[in-house]
Structures are given as structure tokens and as C-alpha cells.
Amino acid sequence: MRYGDDDRESRNVEDRRGERGGFRFPGGFPGGSGGNRIRIPIGGGGGGSIWTILIIGGILMLLGVNPLDLLSGGGQFPQVPQMPESSRQVPTRQAERGPNIPGLPGGTQVSGQDDMKRFVSQVLADTEDVWKQVFTSFGRNYSEPQMVLFSGATRTACGTGMAQMGPFYCPLDRKIYIDLSFYDMMKKRFNAPGDFAQAYVIAHEVGHHVQKLLGIADKVQEMKMSMSERDANAVQVRMELQADCLAGVWANLNDQVKNRLQPGDVEEGLNAASQIGDDMIQRRTQGTVVPDAFTHGSSEQRVRWFKRGLDAGDISQCDTFNTNAL
């Protein structure tokens, strides 16, 4: 990706890497076991079936929710206008708590983390610029999320955040949490190197923030409270695949404006989406694949929805809730 010292860094980055340890809230996650953390997976699982899809539709109707409204909080998902060519710039340079990621180093500082902090701050700034314009295009204000950098463990409104969980979004405080050692793990253990792969992780979590602002996250959480674990997992898969699609939309629109992508970047992103599919992770960690335990989608599904958003650059293409073909 093309970033340089002159590119803007987000002011919404809180660096807690100097803190020692985390804080555990009494009773665990606020609200019991209901979906307070939305994470990039690296361990764990949801599956789906036609029966699950029928259940989803039926529950939505019983709740008085138009299934189409699930994506927009009211009405059709707005179309995103093409970014103006004149603005193109060339820079100078919450279901259940998921299982831990085996082997992720917590609290270990890796070389180049100052450079990495600059990079993630620049990526977050780009997400702010793109989503602000998108929300403005359909008459909404975009409230920027904060990103918290930590080492090992940290306090969150959703409970104690642990490095072993991987990056995650907490909808209760609207913050993204990441231990930067995760990127070293992506490269060495999950064979997903590259700066665009790293940007994809952030864009996915920002996608969950977009879902929160549009009311999607709250509606999904309400639905899951009355479902079996299997069906709740299936709904969560749709939630995660939509965040992948939104990450692709961001990458497309961001490149239109700022010419960020370089040869090989798209392949890096697609590889990252594939490497963190539930089936790939289950094979790697337990040797067997259990589709009913999926919570983020298979490698093939994650690649397809990320690519769909990347190709279209249009959030109306990210309706994972009203399709039988995930």
C-alpha cells in the first residue's frame, strides 16, 4: 500500500501498550453471554442451513422487522456514489466469547512497532475519510471509532480484552482493540503477510462499527438472544461476512480517492481472508471441521464476500442477510 510520512494519521488512536495487565469486570461481559465482542477470528466457529434462513426470516417478522431493514436501519441500503476522479491523490509515501488463538504472543513488543503504529493510524484515518463521505451521501453522520493498541490484556466495556482473542470490536464502547503482535502472528503462523492484509484486519473491524451505526449490530444481537446456539452462530456468520464485504467496499473507494493499492495488494487481502476462515482454522487447530460451530464463515465465503465488496465499491452489494447463497 502507498503510504508516506505526509499522510494523515488518525487522532482516534489510544496507545495502552505501556499498561500492565488487564482489568476484569465483575460478571464477565455486560449483558451476560450476548454478543458484546465482534472479532476477527482465529479460532472458532457457525454453520448455516435452509432451516436457519427460514428461522431468521420468521423471527424478523415476529419482531416486526422488515428483513430489508436489517441492512439499513430503514429502507434500502443506500447506493454509494462514485468517488470524484478530481479528488484522487498520490501520496508521497456479540455472541459468545471465542476460543483463544493458540500460540499468540501476548505483551511481546516486536521490532518496528512504532512504524506499525503509524501505519495503522494512517489506515484508520483513511477509513474515517471514506465512511464519512459514504454516510454523508445518504444523509447520515459518521461517528468515528477509536482504536486501542494494547499488549497482552486491557480493559474494555465488553470485559477484559486479551491478545489471544485477536483484534476485536466492542460495540458497547465503540472501540477497536488490537495487540500489534497479532500481525506478526498473521505472517508467521497463518501465512498472511503484507500491509494490505494488515489493513484488511482494521477495515473488517471498522465494518462492524458501520454495522453498529446503522443499527444492524443491535438487531442481530436481539435476534440471537432467542435462538439456539447453532442458529445464533449462523446469524453471526452473516454478520461477519458482511463486515468482510464492507472492508472490500472501503478498499475500493479508498483507492479511487487516494490511489493506495499496489500490485499484489489485492492478492494479499484475499489470502488473508482465506487463511482466517473457520474451516481453515479448525483444520489447523483441531484437525476436523465442524460447520455448525462456524462464527465467521468458511475461507471460500470470506474471500467471496470481501472480493464482492472490493469489486463493487457499493455497500448495497453487502446484503448477507437476504441471500441463500453465502
Automatic annotation (TrEMBL):
It is a single-pass membrane protein. It is found in: Membrane. InterPro entries: Uncharacterised_pept_Zn_put. Keywords: Hydrolase, Membrane, Metalloprotease, Protease, Transmembrane, Transmembrane helix. One of its GO terms (cellular component) is membrane. Residues 24-34 have a biased composition (Gly residues). GO terms for molecular function: metallopeptidase activity. One of its GO terms (biological process) is proteolysis. Residues 1-22 have a biased composition (Basic and acidic residues). Residues 1-34, 80-112 are annotated as: Disordered. This is YpfJ protein, zinc metalloprotease superfamily.
